[in-house]
Amino acid sequence: MMNTDLSPPLWRLLQGAADVLVSIRAGRSGTAALNAVPPDMRPGVQSLSYRVLRELGRAEVLRQQLAARKPAPAADALLCTALALVWDEAAAPYDSFTLVNQAVEAAKRNPALHAQAGFINGCLRRFLREREAMVAQSEQQAVAIWNHPVWWIERLRREYPQHWESILQANNTQAPMTLRINARKTDVASYLEYLRTSGIAAVACGAYGVTLVNPVPVHQLPEFDQGWVSVQDAAAQMAAPLLLTGLVTSPDAQILDACAAPGGKTAHLLELSSAQVTALDIDPLRCTRIEQTLQRLGLQAKVLAADAGQPRDWWNGVLFDAILLDAPCTASGIVRRHPDVRWLRRESDVAQLASQQRRLLETLWPLLKPSGRLLFCTCSVFKEEGQVQIQTFLARNTQATLLASPGHLMPTFATRSDPVPDNGAIDHDGFYYALLEKHAT
Known about the structure:
Elements: H1 10-25, H2 30-35, H3 42-54, H4 56-66, H5 73-86, H6 96-109, H7 117-138, H8 142-146, H9 150-159, H10 164-171, E1 178-181, H11 188-197, E2 202-205, E3 209-212, E4 229-231, H12 239-244, E5 254-258, H13 264-272, E6 276-281, H14 284-297, E7 302-305, E8 320-326, H15 341-344, H16 347-364, E9 368-378, H17 387-396, E10 400-409, E11 431-438
Parallel strand pairs: 5-6, 5-8, 6-7, 8-9
Antiparallel strand pairs: 1-3, 1-4, 2-3, 9-11, 10-11
Helix pairs in contact: 1-3, 1-5, 1-6, 3-5, 4-5, 4-7, 5-6, 5-7, 6-7, 9-10
């Protein structure tokens, strides 16, 4: 009988996931590494890669037990990929012996790894024989328990002594698919009904959000291509309402969205106001994404490829009524969506990015009108990139008043044991927000 199964074999997916891991260890982002995977393999490789990255600390500790001397990068990546997937038999996506056999097959079929196939086979077979003892031994190391670098774990322990464990636990869960309703075209209740009639289970999440019980491809969402909804985390949806609430805007009001790509917050500002919005991003390719986002939603903004920290290159001298500064950061609050972040970041990155945030704050503040507002936000849970940053800014700027700040929002997750979770409103990423008002001297 002809084999009609056209899906890639498991050994190819394992090799693809190992290749992604090699790229990430070399400093490439997970997104870029996955974009290099052939389209027919990408969904399967992404699924395995995310699992591997969420269990990589455990896998590396187990590999150290099996081979004290670190193998060459390609061999080590394939070995760690297999260990990350196989170590917890109850949660493994495939039967343990199937995973091991297919990992060895991947080595045999890769000319660069063929000579290492016996070594990989020996390590993995030994692990299956000694799994219980090796896993128990790995429990002595925090990196294996929490699957984050030690410096990251220790930083959270210092800054959040009561909550660090729950933050790490949330980071290792899969993020939900949350949608933002385009208030110009529909509302939450109406769209929930559209989803129900389409057989898609969902719950309301905040004033403009809907969280799906199970993710679906965006083009299966009712009226997605017509701009009724956008994919945006519940915490990110707080930005536009925070900036706009109580702010008197008119069609002539000027709002700056600095560091705007991919355009979700720009679009939300336009959905909720009639103001003129300028959207900046330093990367021209990312500006193209902003324009595509706005086009799908039927919205218009002035999109500029420019460095927000160099106003002389783009600013026309007209003061802004409001500024949204979604500053570059470690992305420590969105690890569950981008599990590569924890393995890419170094401890020194925190101070370096905080310095960049400080320069942007000081540069953009003079561009704000008296009585204008600036909303500072980062998708970070590290206090140096949020609470400490704003405390320092307020101490140096007598014109600045803190109007509101939800503070550091911790990544949280809904319990998914029920068919429809009832606490979707708190299922969000980690963020920091501070709303500042400028007053005359």
